[in-house]
Design brief:
Blueprint: E1 3-7, H1 11-23, E2 27-31, H2 34-43, E3 48-52, H3 60-69, E4 75-80, H4 85-93, E5 98-101, H5 106-124, E6 126-129, E7 132-135, E8 140-143, E9 146-148, H6 152-162, H7 171-179, H8 189-201, E10 210-213, E11 217-220
Parallel strand pairs: 1-2, 1-3, 3-4, 4-5
Antiparallel strand pairs: 6-7, 7-8, 8-9, 10-11
Helix pairs in contact: 6-7, 6-8
Length: 224
Amino acid sequence: MIKILVVEDEKKVSALIKQGLQEVGHLVEVSDTPSQARELIRKNNFDLIILDVMLPEMSGLEFSKELRVSGCKSFILMLTALSTTKDKIMGLDSGADDYLTKPFEFDELLARVRALMRRQTEEKSLLKNGELVMDLIGRQVSREGVRIDLTTKEFSLLEFFMRNLDHVMDRNAIARQVWGTDFDPDSNVIDVYINHLRKKIDATFSKKILKTVVGEGYVLNKME
């Protein structure tokens, strides 16, 4: 189940899309103007925005650009009656992730939605910091294309740092997240694992990113 916003001023079209998407189990909100859509987006985290090009107030192309500038990360599927290659390029250049020409078969719309959600799943399964990549499903790590073998605990420790780039994490926070509540705060296990991890992800690379902040803890620096 995913959360979808349909921005479409043709009420019959939006009603049909909403009904069809709800029948396959998705949560759907509908808006017929960009201003109304803004309010809904401000209050909700939508996985997908299905956006018509021809809208009152402003075009879907302009609204898509506005959403991307504002930092909106939702997938955008553009709907339009315009079907030339130039029109499709304009839609994609505006920030849309996919483009569907009207009239369309509802099964094709569902297929496009499924494809975008697969992309979302794949992206969520990867944590990236420059050339340092963690595959959370495959449980693999690489840096600059070089595979790095980690133990289960080292993997959990790196994942914690990757989710908190550029934030100094103290020993208590690391202990809670990686070792659990029964961890002995006087143990040197954290220091030992930090050293093991540093040797694997830093030692053979020119840029060192796992740093000790004396008196405060450890930080994994963000790479551009």
